[in-house]
Amino acid sequence: MEIKPFQKKVYLSSPTMHGDELKYMTEAFETNWMSTVGENINEVERIAAEKAGMKYAVGLSCCTAALHLCVKFAGERLYGKPQISHGALEGRRVFCSDMTFDATLNPVVYEGGIPVFIDTEADSWNMDPIALEKAFEMYPEVKLVVCAELYGFPGRIDLIKQICERHGALLIEDAAEAMGATLNGKQCGSFGDYSAISYNGNKIITGSSGGCLLTNDIEVANKARKWSTQARENAPWYQHEEVGYNYRMSNVIAGVIRGQYPYLEEHIAQKKAVYERYKKGFKDLPVKMNPIMEGSEPNYWLSGMIIDNEYMCRQVRDDSKALYVKEKGKTCPTEILEAIAAINAEGRPIWKPMHMQPMYRLHEFITREGSGRARTNAYIAGGVADVGADIFDRGLCLPSDNKMTAEQQEVIIEVVKRCFD
Ligand SMILES: *Cc1c(COP(=O)(O)O)cnc(C)c1O
To answer: How many whole angstroms separate alpha carbon 419 and alpha carbon 307?
Structure first.
């Protein structure tokens, strides 16, 4: 096969518009609801709640804002209302997913909490329930868990919820990447006491930005509505008893999201086809695709792969650069990502685990064995102790755009194969 760079870039995951989005945006314009109030927001909230099988959805500016309001509410419920200028989790430990986007746990820090990272399960690439049990053994006083679903492939969020219940802890589910995915027939976004979904530009459907908080608890929904609109009290003037935020969803953006929802299933089907083409294309390579748990139906947002240990060439990564030594028959994520970039396509490393991030290296990190230790600055793949670091060393995200053609994908598959030459 002759390999030439694509004329038009193949993205990791880019927005896919269909036309209805413009209709609803135009409606907002023509009726002059150019605001954070309007029919589009009402409809997005109705559809989001209905899809997830939750009672309430609150439309917000982004998923990070939704997570922040979840965390703040959980903190106040667990520990009482903090003084002004104090966070609701001040000095409290919170168990958090380790291998995820930092937006999962940034809100814990906004509220003064101390993230304690829970290692990843090799079989699911999500939070390890056994490591979480271990964490509760070590810190029985912890009452809050924030768990993300990775790349749209649910892990054991059902078990994690049970463990939380057994320990009297609340669960916040970050389903930003997993909208439309299910575990045992139950939608992601419906496992947490409070959950969050995202309409960020590269997610499975998008409003360019936006997010929703999902819950069955009307008290949370009401608080989120109040806090997200500057926490005004019910009075004829601007009356305030608590701190507020400007987090509400725009009715224009809600128009985009409203127009996208009918295409969620179509996007999932396209992403599934992408995943399956990779799986078939790589069947003779020493690699595995990201795992699908029994009983789960992923939304296939990002196709990922991991290289078998014996086929990893030597690779070193410090805080900003990567180097590798090419060996015959072996490769590494850096080489594959460079080869993909060279044909004008976009891959991405696995989310670098939080316990390896400079800002969290001194934070606690808990594996199945107990207290884990972050590796120091530079390290060499192979001699790793924890699952998250290992997946980061050997894994990568492949171009997963739903508009990529089968022919383009064949070229990408061939390029990956040649890295093993
Ligand atoms: C995208 C993402 C978020 C943040 O979503 P925004 O809507 O951009 O705030 C949070 N968590 C995870 C796991 C994500 O992938």
So the answer is: 11
